[in-house]
Design goal:
The protein is an all-alpha fold. It has 2 domains: about 160 residues; about 210 residues, Phosphate transport system protein phou homolog 2, domain 2 (Methane Monooxygenase Hydroxylase, Chain G, domain 1), CATH 1.20.58.220. Helix content is about 75%, strand content about 0%. The protein contains 21 helices and 2 strands. Strands 1-2 form a two-stranded parallel sheet. The longest helix has about 55 residues. About 30% of the residues are buried. It comes from Glycine max.
């Protein structure tokens, strides 16, 4: 009986173990399926994002193909025996050169290839020269001369990287110089045929660099200069839209027109932030553009550095606009009556500033001197002068009441003294006065942009924009209607 119970327990235990094993196995399989499904889902999302990147900017996909073409071309030095016999195992330096120096834009590729070729060649010649001198000094002094030369030249070259003019254009070349000279000098102490080795390496590096330049320039080139050109003109449009939307949003209110209301969107309002964050990109593109050959409408010596100056003036204006938006969004809000008193002229100033900035973008985009820029600047200055006059009248709104002694002297009081004064708390007008003051400051900074764009038009030899209306009405394009009677020049770049 006891034996039967033991057998029953054993069978029950086996059944329980088998059930537990089945449960554990199902759990493991379920986890594996869950992990596999999760990885598959992430892979699908990654492929979708990669596809969107390629569709949004096909040039990135083309750049990948160009890198593959350059690598395949230099790989022939390994695959094709006659070429391999010429350079031997040093062909790998050509492959490494393509991987290291091939960049997205043609200017960046040319900059890095020229730096690499010059740095490698100069370091190779100096390294061979130092090796020759050290070998003639005897075995005792050879390592001393080689070590001292590495210390002196590496230290001097590293210090030169802190010089701004050299760092901007030749930083990569200096780094390659330090690397190559150290390799040649140190390896020359143990390698007998140093001259042959250095010759092969320099030749293969030059071959790889030339291949990168050819592929980058010939096959659908992406010019850094054109990218800078598009960036600056696009930032001008974004700055104009942000300024216009900011003023309309604050002063328009319910009385703003439907067209103006459509312009007020967060995307346009915050477009100026792209201007504030574009300094590094502009400087990098301007540096690479100086290495590029003439292309499109841009000559070899196109004044690319002037675009950096334009960008700096735009950032100055954008920083003032950022302060304006911060003031508008503050907790201390002005009364609706004060906004209404200044809304008309303030919106006029904002609209005129935006018109001037858009015209500057059109000037750069067309590379033609604008025929109506002078008129737009004059209108902007006139509107700013009206706003300044209105601000000058604000102190009379908060004057304290006159004492009784002065009020009795009516025989000597001026008409302004006899007019009633309206007392308004300062906190109710401080915001709207600050907004108006910032608008006036923006006008001055827009004029700075105008000066830089005009300097660009002179340096790049922009031709005057001529059309039928300008030919038939030359006098109308030079003199504004408000100044025809006075005979005053339209253009003024003085701060209002």
């Amino acid at each position: 009986m006891a034996r039967g119970n033991d057998m029953a327990k054993e069978v029950e235990w086996r059944i329980k173990v088998e059930e537990d094993d089945d449960t554990l196995q199902k759990t493991i399989v379920g986890c594996m399926w869950a992990v596999t499904a999760g990885l598959a889902l992430k892979l699908c999302k990654f492929v979708k994002k990669a596809w969107e990147v390629g569709v949004n900017d096909p040039r990135k996909f083309i750049h990948c193909l160009k890198v593959g073409i350059a690598l395949s071309a230099v790989s022939l030095f390994y695959y094709w025996k006659p070429l391999y016999d010429g350079v031997g195992g040093n062909a790998m330096w050509a492959v490494m050169t393509v991987v290291v120096v091939f960049e997205y834009t043609a200017g960046a590729t040319i900059c890095k290839t020229v730096n690499r070729m010059c740095g490698t060649s100069l370091a190779g010649f100096l390294g061979i020269g130092v090796h020759w001198v050290a070998s003639r000094a005897g075995e005792q002094w050879e390592p001393v001369i080689a070590g001292v030369s590495v210390f002196l030249l590496a230290s001097a070259a590293t210090f030169s990287r802190f010089i701004p003019s050299l760092k901007a254009r030749f930083d990569y070349g200096i780094l390659i110089f330090i690397l190559t000279f150290s390799l040649v000098s140190i390896s020359g102490y143990r390698v007998d045929e140093l001259l042959v080795m250095a010759q092969y390496r320099v030749c293969t590096i030059i071959i790889g660099s030339i291949m990168c330049i050819i592929v980058s320039v010939i096959i659908r080139p992406i010019w850094a200069g054109f990218e800078l050109f598009v960036l600056v003109t696009g930032n001008l449009d974004k700055l104009a839209n942000s300024l216009r939307c900011c003023v309309v949003q604050y002063f328009g209110g319910s009385e703003a027109s439907e067209a103006e209301s459509d312009e007020v969107s967060d995307k346009k309002l915050l477009g100026y932030k792209c201007v504030l964050s574009s300094k590094a990109t502009e400087e990098t593109m301007a540096n690479f553009a100086r290495w590029e050959p003439a292309h499109g409408r841009f000559n070899f010596r196109h004044p690319w550095r002037q675009y950096v100056k334009i960008g700096a003036s735009m950032r100055s204006c954008a920083s003032c606009l950022d302060a304006l938006i911060g003031c508008i969004n503050s907790d201390n809000q002005a009364s609706d009556d004060m906004k209404k008193n200044m809304s008309s002229i303030s919106m006029k100033v904002g609209a005129n500033c935006a018109s001037v900035i858009r015209e500057l973008a059109t000037t750069i985009r067309k590379m033609k001197k604008s025929s109506k820029l002078d008129i737009l600047v004059t209108q902007m200055n006139s509107a700013a002068q009206e706003l300044r006059s209105l601000l000058n009248s604000c102190p009379y709104l908060v004057n304290p009441p006159h004492n009784s002694k002065r009020s009795t002297r009516t025989e000597t009081a001026s008409p302004d003294d006899l007019a009633p004064k309206i007392e308004i708390p300062l906190m109710e007008i401080i915001q709207v006065v600050t907004v108006a003051s910032l608008l006036i400051e923006i006008v001055a900074r827009v004029e700075d942009i105008v000066e830089n764009v005009e300097e660009l038009s002179d340096l790049a030899n922009f031709q005057p924009e001529m059309n039928v209306k300008s030919k038939q009405h030359t006098s109308d394009s030079k003199v504004s209607p408000d100044q025809q009677n006075d005979g005053e020049p339209v253009r003024t770049l003085q701060m209002v």
